[in-house]
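re: ur msg from earlier - yeah i can do the zinc ion complex, just paste it... oh wait u already did. ok heres what im feeding in:
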Amino acid sequence: MPTTEQQWFDFAPAAPAAAEPAPAPLLVAPRPAPAGDRLALDEAGEVAVRRSAKATRYRLSVGRDGAAVLTIPMHGSERQARQFLESQSDWLARTRHRLAALPRSAAVWTIGTSVLWRGEWRTIDRAPEATPHVVLGGERFRVRGHAGDLRPTLEAHFRRVARIELPPRTWELAAVTGVEVREVVVRDQRTRWGSCSSSGTISLNWRLVQAPAFAADYIVLHELMHLREMNHSERFWALVEAVCPRWQEAERWLKNHGGALGL
Ligand SMILES: [Zn+2]
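and the outut:
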């Protein structure tokens, strides 16, 4: 699940009118966009352009930093790309505005830094023990000292919590939904919250322990339903809806906070 926001437009090659000669097979030769290939857009700023031989439709995506990329499908034209971009200019401005307003996680964590923990922004506080500890939303974590960057130590704790908590929860939800699971692994993934293989292995991102329980459950249920339906068809979403009525709320939370969690 990428953290970029996307809008797309299905690319349907125009059928040539009967009286007109057939169009040339390619309007634009498929080629990687040169680094400087950009479309300027009056209000929303510049957008990088990328051509893709695999893309079947125009797609506009905005990264966490507000950088926008417009993908042109193989048979697409720059004229159509501009039209698509113009039709999305409001969405682009709104999305950039929303992303800019989202809280960001600090790169370096010290006493006083706010970090996401179990779905809430929590301040790292000093614990009163003789051995150095910090408190995060009522939970204590041992640290080497209170000075310096606490992030590597705390993230190692988070990963350990994830390895302890996420697999049993997955087995529990697998039992409740009657899905056969072979293996559950907790991984350090940068681009997705979870994945599954047709052989029945479910992989989960340890950062899910930083998300609220309902969002972590949604990812688990999403992957479990993939073991029934290995695609994102309507049938798949109907299965998700049946076992996780709050899935849209969860998707929204994950989309809005993925950037803060480094995804
Ligand atoms: Zn999926």
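cool cool. Residues 159-261 form a domain with the Zincin-like fold (CATH 3.30.2010.10). ping me if u need the other ligands too
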